[in-house]
Each structure stands twice: as C-alpha cells, then as structure tokens.
Amino acid sequence: MFEIRIVTENDVEQLQAISVETFSDTFGAQNQPDDLAEYLANAYSQQQLRLELAQVDSWFYFLWVDAELAGYLKLNINQAQSEQATKNSLEIERIYLRKAYQKRGLGKVLLEYAQQEAKNQSKSVIWLGVWEHNDNARAFYQKMGFVAFDQHEFVLGQDVQRDILMQRQL
C-alpha cells in the first residue's frame, strides 16, 4: 500500500534527511567526499529546502509505503525549471527512492504520478536530467519512453559533471 502526498514546510526535517540519505547512497561512492559534503551542505540545507518549498511553480511529494517514507519527487514548471529546455514542459528535478524500496516498481509509480501532474498542468512534455555515469537510471528512463535531447553541467562541490537531459512527449 502506497500513498503520495505533498511536502509542506512542516516536513522540512524529513525532506532534508531523505534528500541527504538518497543522494549520498546514489552518488557517494563515485564522487570525492569533500565534493559530496560541500554539495549536501548547500543543496540540502534546511534554509535552501525552505526556499525551494516556497517556490510557486515547484512541488515536492513524499512517497509512503506501509506508513514508511520510501522516497520523494520534486517537480517544476515555468520559470522554476532548472533549464528552459523545452516548451510547455514539466521538469522532474529530483526523483529518489531509499535503497530498501528500489527495484520494487516504485520509480515507475513516481514517474506516472509526475506524468499525471504534467497533464493536470496541461503540459505536453516531461523531462529530467540524469548523470551521464548513472547507467541504471538512464536505462530505466529509456525503458519508460524518455529520449536524450541535450545536456547540461551539474556542479558537485568543485567537480563539474555532465547530465544528460531526457524527455518524453505526453
């Protein structure tokens, strides 16, 4: 049994904890500890998360499975998007599952939720950025119908990395 619900400012401590946990689990082994620590301190500070939660065209959602926090999703439209990559689009800026909840079909659940939100917002394209070295995620998105269309830089601490931008028509 799962539930997806909107994250509010009252949830900022939980949001920070799951953000740091899932980002570290996903990218920690492939990056320098100092770069990772700098990124986590800046990107996932409570102050930064509160600013993001207050953004009019951004929304965070928690995924609960059997009353346990399993993952989260961040969606952006309009000027809140990290890139103005495509017209009439919704960006999935973050989509993360805790390790214990991976490989259970929950990534698909979150993607389908994002797709429905895009349709609710009358968007015709859904897109995201994925690290070029995250082969599992890239393969998953391809399986879900996303195709690469561009790239952008992602700065992790002092390390400039490359994200592949992928989109799916709705």
TrEMBL record:
PROSITE patterns: GNAT. The keyword Chloroplast does not apply. It comes from the Bacteria. Keywords: Acyltransferase, Transferase. GO terms for molecular function: acyltransferase activity, transferring groups other than amino-acyl groups. InterPro entries: Acyl_CoA_acyltransferase (IPR016181), GNAT_dom (IPR000182), YpeA/RimI_acetyltransf (IPR050680). Residues 2-170 form the N-acetyltransferase domain. PANTHER family: ACETYLTRANSFERASE (PTHR43420), N-ACETYLTRANSFERASE DOMAIN-CONTAINING PROTEIN (PTHR43420:SF47). This is GNAT family N-acetyltransferase.
